[in-house]
Design brief:
binds adenosine-5'-diphosphate, binds magnesium ion, seven-stranded mixed beta sheet, alpha/beta, 147 residues, globular
Length: 147
C-alpha cells in the first residue's frame, strides 16, 4: 500500500487513521532519511491510539513509554512504546535498555524509528513503513506487511 502526503498535516492525519486498524502487540518499523517524517508519523499514531501526552523525540533515551487510557473502542492497548534507534550502533544496546519487555507485548503498540538499524532483532511480523522524501513537503509512505 502506498500513499502520498502533501504536508505534515497529511502525514499526521493518515497515521492517526492508520492507528485505528492496529492490533494489540503490533510492531511498526519506520524507515526513512532524516527529516522524512518518521517522528511526525509516530505522533499521528499516538494521537490515533489515544495517547494524551505529547510525543517527544526519544533520541537520547532510545525508548519512551506512554500510557493509553482504556476507551470504549480500545480496551486492550494500554501502552505505546516509541523507540528511536538513530544512535544505536549495535543491536545489543537496544536489548540493554530493556525493549524486549515491551516489544510485541499484548497490551503494547511499539513504533521504531530507524528500524533498519536493528532489523536483525525485529520479529518477522513487524510491519515496515518506508517514508520517502519526494519534494519539500511531499512524502511517499509505503506500507509492507513483512520486514
Ligand atoms: P524524521 O523523524 O524522519 O527525522 P521528522 O518527523 O522529525 O523526521 O520531521 C519531518 C519534517 O518534515 C518536519 O519538519 C515536517 O514539518 C516536515 N514535513 C514536510 N512535509 C511533510 C510531510 N508530507 N509529512 C511529514 N513531514 C513533513
Ligand atoms: Mg525522528
Amino acid at each position: 500500500m502506498k500513499i502520498i502526503t502533501k504536508n505534515e498535516e497529511g502525514t499526521l492525519a493518515f497515521a492517526e487513521k492508520y492507528a485505528k486498524d492496529l492490533l494489540p502487540g503490533q510492531i511498526i518499523g519506520l524507515i526513512g532519511d532524516l527529516g522524512a517524517g518518521k517522528t511526525i508519523f509516530t505522533k499521528g499514531l499516538a494521537k490515533g491510539l489515544g495517547v494524551q501526552q505529547n510525543i517527544s523525540s526519544p533520541t537520547f533515551n532510545i525508548m519512551r513509554l506512554y500510557e493509553i487510557r482504556a476507551t470504549k473502542t480500545n480496551q486492550e492497548i494500554k501502552k505505546f512504546c516509541h523507540i528511536d534507534a538513530y544512535r544505536v550502533e549495535s543491536e545489543f544496546e537496544i536489548i540493554d535498555v530493556g525493549v524486549e519487555d515491551f516489544i510485541g507485548q499484548k497490551d503494547t503498540i511499539t513504533v521504531i524509528e530507524w528500524a533498519d538499524k536493528i532489523r536483525n532483532i525485529l520479529p518477522g511480523r513487524t510491519i515496515i513503513i518506508n517514508i520517502k522524501l519526494l519534494k519539500k513537503d511531499q512524502r511517499e509512505i509505503i506500507i509492507d506487511q513483512k520486514k
